[in-house]
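[Automated response] Your request has been received and processed.

Submitted sequence:
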Amino acid sequence: MAKRFETRVARLNGHAITRVLPRAHRRMVGPFIFIDIMGPLNFAAGEGLDVPPHPHIGLSTLTYLFSGELLHRDSLGNVVEIRPGEVNWMTAGKGIVHSERQTAEMKAERHCLFGMQCWVASHAKQATEAPAFFHQQQSDLALDRNEQRSIRVIAGSAYGLQASISGPAPMFFIDVMSHEQTQLEHPQKGQEAMLYLVEGSVEVGDEIFHQGEVALLETGDELLAASGSRYLLLGGEAWPEQPYIDWNFVSFSKEQIEQAKTDWRQGQFPEIPGDRDEAMPLPE
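Generated structure:
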């Protein structure tokens, strides 16, 4: 039976967002160790989101937008505008720095930013490897569409589709749009799964979930989505051992996290070309 999942309000550079993971009662869903829902954030002309340079180790970020745009810059030299339906996948490895900002053109007018950023934990060996970056257009995503619904597999595999992004272990991140009332089975039986309602409603057993709600699914659950609904499904195989998470760092070693903190304080992480004038401070 699907269960409603309690989220909390967090702050991202002064803006209220929804923090899904981690929580005291649930630290991971499959390989997903951190999930933020940005918005919908409505900005007046002249305003926007600016997340200054900050570091990561031991994880991959997955950024996926429903509306608005973000400009991604990183210490590998990548400069990419993320638009709705596109996917940004950045693997931190042993260390990377990135920033997420809105362009002057976007800030010039009233606009809405709405999307999700997830962190996918890396295995211990992957956390010592070189960082990497991958961006994919919506038109290149794995898609199964019929008159009733469309299913896009953004990462991992489900419903007979395989995404270009595979992740560190069996996983899935799926965007489903229902054009009519549509029924779907659990995306990967035997794996952990979470549901997020972007819009509309989805019925699972005796429960009905509405826009903005989050649910944990069980293996036998079937989903009945109302016409016009959109929702995300994400999860994967349960991890027998869970890494530590502290600020922007994920690792199976507390010592490695403390070293990353020291390195950030001392300016030992690489810089971002074109975005060097400020940096996110390490929390005290």
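Summary generated for your ticket: The chain has two helices and 25 strands. The longest strand covers residues 32-43.
If you did not submit this request, please reply to this message.
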